[in-house]
Every structure is written in C-alpha cells, then in structure tokens.
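Something for you to look into today, if you have time. Could you write out one complete protein record for me, on any chain you like? Leave the record below and I will have a look.
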Amino acid sequence: MIVVIARILSFFANGVFALLVLGAAVPGTHRVAMPGAYGLTEIAPRIWTDAPSRADGLLSLVEVSRARVIDFFGDATRQNIILCSTQTCARTFRIGGNGLSIANFAVMVSPGGLTRGTLTHELVHSRLHRSIGFENILRPMYPTWFDEGLATYVAGHPNWQGKIPASVRKRVLSAKRTWHWGKAYREVGVRRAYGVAAAEVASIERRAGRTGLMEIITRAEAGEKFATVLIDVLAR
C-alpha cells in the first residue's frame, strides 16, 4: 500500500512539474502571473513593461486611464498591468487585438493599445469583473453587449457616430455571451457594434441617471438577474 501511494504521489508530482515546464515554454496569458520572468520590468507596483525607458509616459497613461474609471465608479481595482511596446511582447502574452482583461487580475495591451481609450476600456472591464467567479463563465453577471457597451461608453473608445437601424440594435442586444459578441460584430461591423452597445448604455443613463446605472451594476454584481434589474430600474 505504501508503495502504491508513493507511486501515485510521484505521478501527480511529475504531472505538476510537466505542467510548469510547459507553461513556462508556451506563450500565453498565463505568463501574466510572473511577467518579470519573461523580460518585463516592473516600473511601479504591479505595472510591467518591456520599455522601462518610457516609464514616465506609461505611468502617466495608467494614471489618466485609471482616473477615468474612478470618476465613473468611484473606485478602481488594482491588477497586474502589462504594457507591451512591441509585437514580440504582445505575442509572448498572447494579447489578441489591442488589449484584453482577465477578470480583475490583469489588464494587458499591445503596442496599438497604448492609448488612453484602449487602456481605460480594459480597466473598465476589470473593474466590472471584480467579483467574477467560475460560475460566471456559464452565467455571466452582465450580458456581453452591456459589458462592452459600458467599457466603450466610459472610455469613449472605440468611437463611432451614425444612425442606428432597429435591426442592428436588435442584433447587438442579442449578444449576451462572449461568443455571441464576436459573431455580432462580424455581421454589423466592429466599430458599429461597439458604438451601438455604448449608445444603449448612454440611453440607460439618460433615463435612470448615473445613480440608476450604478444600481443596475451593483445589483447584478450581487447576484440579481441583469434583465430583471434593468426593467425594474427603467420602470421608475
């Protein structure tokens, strides 16, 4: 029995070791847990970049973007922020597009995302997802159109102006999950999809005020169904 237990423990230990080796060798978002091991420099607590010579400008960018989030929510989460100035760095962390956020743990941007608009957009996602758990993968607290719309609305990015046909609005508002969103913006256009979602959030704030919009967010975060809360708040 002791020999069997020892073999089982050895098997799991070897498995864990193999996963660690594989994780270190394969580029991916998992590397955000130890950015210093992959050539990045920490220029301020939890802020990492491959361009430490640009520290002053990058820290100013973070400060301005975070201030925008605080102005809207009243607070902001503190997460690892990865600021890549080269595509090599972006590939190392598998940053798709200009930026991405991982719950409230990390925000990462590629060279094209080193702007106030993109960084604020991703920081809004991070703040909105501060209480996200495994159960929210299948049952997210907010529909994706609202998630993306809020980030676009607060950040003012990506910007889009134009008429919103009823059919396009309906298509965007049907995107309640991440995989729905990708299909929706491919059908109606990326900027138009984000613009329509942001316009919907702006409409909610016009009708319910900032207090009502924040109530929707707070109650959904607490576990109430977003659709029910939205109807309740807008009916007042």
Observations:
- Confidence is low (pLDDT under 50) at residues 1-23.
- The chain is about 60% helix and 10% strand.
